[in-house]
Every structure is written in C-alpha cells, then in structure tokens.
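tool_call predict_complex ligand=zinc ion
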Amino acid sequence: MSQTKKCSKCKEEKETTLEYFGPHTSNKDGLHAWCRNCFREYQKSKPKKEKYRESLYRYYNRVKGVYGIFGINDECLYTGESKSINRRFNDHRCHSRNPAAAIRNNHCQVELYKFLHNYGFDNLDFRLLEECDDHKEKEKDYINKYNPVYNNA
Ligand SMILES: [Zn+2]
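tool_result ok
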C-alpha cells in the first residue's frame, strides 16, 4: 500500500513517490509540496527570459572570465571581469535596483547603475564573453574591441 500526500497547489492526493513529487531534501518526506504537474505548469508560465536569467546566475557560479552587458541593439554597454561571473551579475542586479545606495557608497560604476535602473535590468543581455584565468588582462582586449559606453563613464 502506498501513501499519498496532498499537493499544496492543486490539492490533489497523489502517491508520495518521486514519480509524482520532485525531490526536495529539506522537506521531511524528501519531496516537494507541489506535485510535478503543478511545477511543470509553473515553469511554463514563467517568461522565457526570466528562466534564462535564473539559470544564468546559477550557471556561472565560480566561472572566471570576462562578461559583457549588451543593449537592445546589441550595442556593448559595459564589459567587466570577475573570478565569479555569477556573483558579479547578481551585484550588478542588486546595485541597479538601488542606484542611490551605490552612489552613497561611492561605487565607481554609478552611471552604469543609473542606466541599468532606468533601462530595466531584465531588458539587457548579459553574456559571458570568455571563460579564462587571465580575466583582468583579457578584459582590456574586450574594451578595445567593443568600446563599451559605460566603461569610461
Ligand atoms: Zn499539484
């Protein structure tokens, strides 16, 4: 006899197995509160861009390299380098939401943050340009190549 549990989203009783619920280690039974169907619907309902961005932030965790921020006409707005691209993306996102704080903290890329804030962070295209260990050096090549608007602002 198999146990069932009620999905907290659709309220249907389903077998308490991985077939019906995704894994979630911090829950007591090791399974998600939502059934797989509800999760699938939820994932589908999210805008594509958002999904892409979420994966981007995770994917570049601890990736060293050079990245670029591109605008709607594919113009390069900014290039940067970091030993953790994902963390840097998140920093930019955070500062662009609150440029006033960045200004107060004398952040050097204030003009960039003001722009990101006004333009809408999620309308921009963040790209990993190159994964490399000599990212500080490589960034200069990309600045020469793209002449980004906000690197010298
Ligand atoms: Zn459900």
